[in-house]
């Protein structure tokens, strides 16, 4: 009986660990208690998007297995690194990687700083990811960040997902799509949020035309004066 109880505990822990990888811990606990998860409004969060430069053409020259292996190597690398920061990985769609800070647990004014440090780390880390079928090739990341309000909640019953909604999500995605290889493109809102401690090297990009937004003044995030990325 004792052995069976221990086995049951292990299985339960495995199930809980898997659930916590798919949903925020606080949300998973509410679902397990069969409670309704209320959507929440967040006044300020910072959202990061990235994708792989030229992924479509890279994928076209690979077998399906090679594509999956390449993305798995990349995401294992990214997932292990983001654990060092106060951030939540929202989702991956193909080669796109979405991370937020300031939700589901609010962290005051730290969200922009946490995402900025994380993004510098990931842009450096992508160069070290080995592509098994392209031993001499290296992946390049295109990244974008925006800060603003959003709504977050659980959507779906069969396969519930923790989703983010609002213009902040759209703008962060636009920052990524208008970025350049191995560059971190940030909005004016994120720039202002990072000015508070004067720790970042930031360069003005200027005014650019952003689809659905018109002209926007944006910046390049180059580095942090007091923080070096992990090896």
Automatic annotation (TrEMBL):
GO biological process: intracellular signal transduction; receptor guanylyl cyclase signaling pathway
Record-linked PROSITE patterns: GUANYLATE_CYCLASE_1, GUANYLATE_CYCLASE_2
Membrane topology, record value: Single-pass type I membrane protein
Principal place of residence: membrane
Keyword Transferase attached: no
EC number, UniProt record: 4.6.1.2
Name of the protein this chain belongs to: guanylate cyclase
Species of provenance: Semnornis frantzii
Gene name of this polypeptide: Npr1_2
């Amino acid at each position: 009986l004792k052995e069976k109880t221990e086995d049951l505990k292990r299985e339960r822990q495995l199930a809980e660990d898997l659930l916590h990888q798919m949903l925020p811990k606080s949300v998973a606990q509410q679902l397990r208690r069969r409670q309704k998860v209320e959507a929440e409004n967040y006044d300020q969060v910072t959202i990061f998007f990235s994708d792989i430069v030229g992924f479509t053409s890279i994928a076209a020259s690979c077998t399906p297995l090679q594509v999956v292996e390449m993305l798995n190597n990349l995401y294992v690398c990214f997932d292990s690194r983001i654990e060092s920061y106060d951030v939540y990985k929202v989702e991956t769609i193909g080669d796109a990687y979405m991370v937020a800070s300031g939700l589901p647990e609010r962290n005051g004014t730290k969200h922009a700083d946490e995402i900025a440090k994380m993004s510098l780390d990931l842009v450096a880390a992508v160069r070290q990811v080995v592509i098994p079928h392209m031993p001499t090739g290296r992946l390049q990341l295109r990244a974008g960040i925006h800060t603003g309000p959003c709504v977050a909640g659980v959507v779906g019953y069969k396969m519930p997902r923790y989703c983010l909604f609002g213009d902040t999500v759209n703008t962060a995605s636009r920052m990524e799509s208008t970025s350049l290889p191995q560059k971190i493109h940030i909005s004016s809102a994120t720039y202002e949020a990072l000015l508070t401690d004067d720790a970042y090297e930031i360069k003005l990009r200027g005014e650019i035309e952003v689809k659905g937004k018109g002209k926007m003044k944006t910046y390049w995030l180059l580095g942090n004066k007091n923080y070096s990325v992990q090896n």
